[in-house]
Specification:
With about 160 residues, this protein is α/β, with parallel strands linked by helices. It contains eight helices and seven strands, in the order βααααβαβαββββαα. The chain has a single domain, classed as Aconitase, domain 4 (Alpha-Beta Barrel), CATH 3.20.19.
């Protein structure tokens, strides 16, 4: 997977990703995508391109466990989030919905850098840096490759151990 880096900071909570008041208006990812990160950067959503990659600091997705914070990111055409760390619930919601959560050192990545993402490392195509990432368990990779937990169960009927 490759994409353009879109930088956000540390401690990005789910209400920064999509405010609670917006989810009362609609749960349609195609509607919500226009409000992505509006509390952090009101122009962010208008500049997102399908294939962009969110690059964050520590504790990405903290706050409430609202799943719509993942579906809004997916609705914007973003398929991966790189962060130094994730909240536990956001990480699981990401995997369950087919959004690739990558834990790695994001300090050397800049806005607009072109990135190539694999299951065990990220290559910054702009700088040539190779950034190791934390391994994702095989079952989670299988869920991600299926497109999320529901598609995984449709394909397999159960967890394949």
């Amino acid at each position: 997977m490759t994409g353009r880096a879109r930088i956000v900071g540390d401690d990005i909570n789910t209400d920064y990703i999509i405010t609670s008041r917006r989810k009362r208006e609609s749960l349609d990812p195609q509607v919500l995508r226009q409000y992505l990160f509006e509390e952090v950067d009101p122009w962010f959503a208008a500049t997102v391109q399908p294939g962009d990659v969110i690059v964050a600091g520590k504790n990405f997705g903290c706050g409430s466990a609202m799943e719509v914070a993942v579906t809004t990111v997916l609705g914007a055409g973003i398929r991966a989030v790189l962060a130094r760390s994730f909240s536990r619930t956001y990480y699981r919601n990401a995997v369950n919905n087919g959004l690739f959560p990558v834990m790695c050192d994001t300090s050397g990545i800049r806005e607009g850098d072109q990135l190539s993402i694999d299951s065990d490392h990220v290559t910054n195509l702009t700088t040539g840096a190779n950034i190791p990432s934390s391994p994702i368990p095989k079952i989670m990779l299988d869920i991600l490759n299926a497109g999320g937990l529901v598609p995984y169960f449709r394909q397999h009927g159960d967890f394949q151990v």
